[in-house]
Design a protein that fits this description.
The complex is a heterodimer of chains A (349) and B (171).
Chain A (H helix, E strand, L loop, with lengths): L8 E2 L4 E2 L4 E6 L3 E7 L3 E8 L5 E6 L2 H25 L6 H24 L3 E6 L4 E3 L6 H19 L4 H6 L5 H4 L1 H6 L19 H11 L1 H9 L5 H22 L7 H32 L13 H31 L17
Antiparallel strand pairs in A: 1-3, 2-3, 3-4, 4-5, 6-7, 7-8
Chain B lengths: L5 E5 L34 E2 L6 E2 L5 E3 L2 E3 L1 H9 L9 E3 L1 H15 L4 H16 L11 H27 L1 H6 L1
Antiparallel strand pairs in B: 2-3, 4-5
Chain lengths: 349, 171
């Protein structure tokens, strides 16, 4: 009964979500999407003979990441320039360390710029509309779609204009692609994704205010107010918890993508900050002994001061952006009502 | 409308009507071959795996073979039909992680994880791995590292015993 093992060819591109990676492989008669956690792989096969359409839609993730990474770079650049300008007052070590961090901050900016605009790519068959997370960059997606086209046409033959006209899909495909991409043209049966719920983004609102609360908390820390250390830890803990809850609550909701990314950006930023703080603490202890950390305040150390300014600036920018996005979205979005009654088919012209 | 730039490539399958399921024909004449699962239906083909007669309803054409539902299910369960595999566990990756990570993060735990890594690598050796091309290098490395850690633990225990109070007084 067993058949000969299928040979696969790895295709360029790859997508990453929280703990999974996505890759596409070209098989003799199908496209294989592999979702890997590192310890297990799950597979989805799209047979060339069944593919009805490939939809590539440009999105604004490129700009968003450009702003985020660019903002981060600008903050480090500012810190470095301030260091250079006040050179006699600060040590050479500060300028070197911030320069190295600046160089590191430039890597994601350059990578994002070099990889080009982002997109979302979907593959449609008679019974499903599947996202291909490994095709997240427009340039790569277009190359691969051209390749898919030759493979699919080899299996199905070219599509004649008469066949396109005769298909169940009206002229929407030809005339208004955005409509097609956002609303699949034919009813998708059982395997279609579950319906999108409405969510007002309450946890995101709390998250934004917690992010903004970092500013007074940091200011109190500068003023050596009592209890600010405890307050800071509570604030970080609360922000992390709310970010996780917001990340879970936003799943399969109608919240805009840019607001959905906010909790993950916050968690990523906290992760980077914690790692950087630990690394710098280790450097301080190794160089100057454990006593250096006792009673250390942000004013005492220029690197610590820069890190604090960068992190506070970042949280404030994220908080303000989140509030603006939420406000704009809430003003335009209305909770979805009951599904519309079945419409009469349009009369033939 | 999102007004985003969208490119749609459509293919002939879009114009193809959704395939309708076939229905089996009833047995009309006495002595006519009937389906093993539906004795009232006419057999059209034998199962390529078990040889049972199948009607049009039970005939599942797969990889140029005609299979009955039972053989198809059993083939999928036993991993004989790779084209139906939806998920595979990568025991070799798990074993390698067990062999490497504890040594880097918390080495005393390797007393337990080294044998576990070897066990997992051996357990997964004959199991179907990834359907993608993949060597056994991870499993071999996990076994080698696990053995190395066990040898290290053995040497440590031996050294401890040789210098312990018990052995000193025994001699």
């Amino acid at each position: 009964m067993s058949a000969a093992p299928t040979t696969y060819r790895k295709l360029p591109g790859g997508g990453v979500s929280l703990a999974t990676t996505y890759r596409l492989y070209e098989g003799p008669d199908h496209l294989l999407q592999v979702c890997s956690t590192g310890y297990s792989e799950s597979y989805k096969r799209f047979y060339y003979r069944d593919v009805q359409a490939v939809i590539v839609q440009r999105n604004r993730m490129w700009q968003l990441w450009g702003w985020i990474w660019g903002g981060n770079f600008a903050l480090w650049l500012g810190g470095w320039l301030i260091g250079l300008a006040t050179m006699p007052a600060v040590e050479m070590g500060y300028v070197v360390v911030v320069g190295v961090l600046l160089a590191l901050a430039s890597v994601p900016v350059l990578a994002n710029w070099l990889m080009g605009p982002t997109c979302s790519c979907h593959l449609r068959t008679a019974v499903q509309l599947e996202k291909l997370p490994s095709l997240g960059r427009l340039r790569k997606a277009e190359q691969l779609v051209a390749r898919f086209k030759s493979l699919i046409e080899a299996a199905q033959g070219p599509l004649s204009p008469e066949a396109l006209q005769a298909s169940t899909v009206p002229s929407a495909v030809q005339e208004a692609p955005p409509v097609m991409a956002s609303a699949p043209v034919a009813a998708l049966p059982a395997s279609a994704p579950p319906p999108i719920k409405h969510y007002d983004g309450r946890m995101h609102l709390v998250l934004c205010w917690l992010l903004l609360a970092d500013l007074p908390s940091t200011a109190m820390d500068y003023l050596n107010s009592p209890g600010t250390d405890v307050l800071g830890v509570i604030l970080i803990g609360a922000t992390t918890t709310v970010a996780i809850i917001a990340g879970v609550k936003q799943m399969r909701t109608d919240l805009p993508d840019k607001i959905k990314r906010l909790p993950w950006v916050v968690l990523g930023m906290f992760g980077v900050l914690i790692v950087a703080s630990i690394a710098y603490g280790i450097v301080l202890v190794v160089e100057q002994g454990p006593s250096r950390l006792e009673g250390l305040r942000v004013w005492d150390d220029p690197i610590l001061l820069t890190m604090t300014i960068v992190s506070t600036g970042f949280t404030v920018v994220l908080g303000v952006l989140g509030l603006v996005w939420l406000r704009t979205w809430r003003a335009t979005a209305a909770p979805p009502g009951p599904p519309p009654m079945q419409e009469e088919p349009p009369a033939a012209a | 409308m999102c007004q985003r730039e969208t490119r749609v490539e459509v293919f002939p399958a879009l114009a193809r009507p959704v395939a309708q399921g076939s229905s089996a024909e009833a047995v009309l004449l006495e002595g006519e071959a009937a389906c093993f699962y539906h004795p009232q239906k006419r057999a059209v083909v034998p199962c390529s795996a078990c040889g049972r007669f199948l009607c049009a309803l039970c005939d599942l054409e797969f990889n140029a073979q005609h299979l009955c539902p039972a053989c198809l299910e059993s083939g999928q369960r036993k991993g004989q039909l790779t084209a139906l595999d939806m998920r595979r566990t990568l025991y070799d990756s798990g074993a390698l992680t067990l062999a490497v990570v504890p040594v880097l993060l918390c080495w005393p735990v390797s007393f337990l994880t080294a044998p576990a890594a070897i066990g997992l690598a051996v357990y997964g050796w004959r199991k179907p791995g990834s359907i993608l091309p993949r060597t056994r290098a991870r499993a071999v490395a996990a076994i080698a590292l696990g053995l190395l850690q066990i040898v290290g633990w053995g040497a440590m225990i031996l050294m401890y015993l040789r210098t312990s109070w018990f052995l000193t007084h025994l001699h």
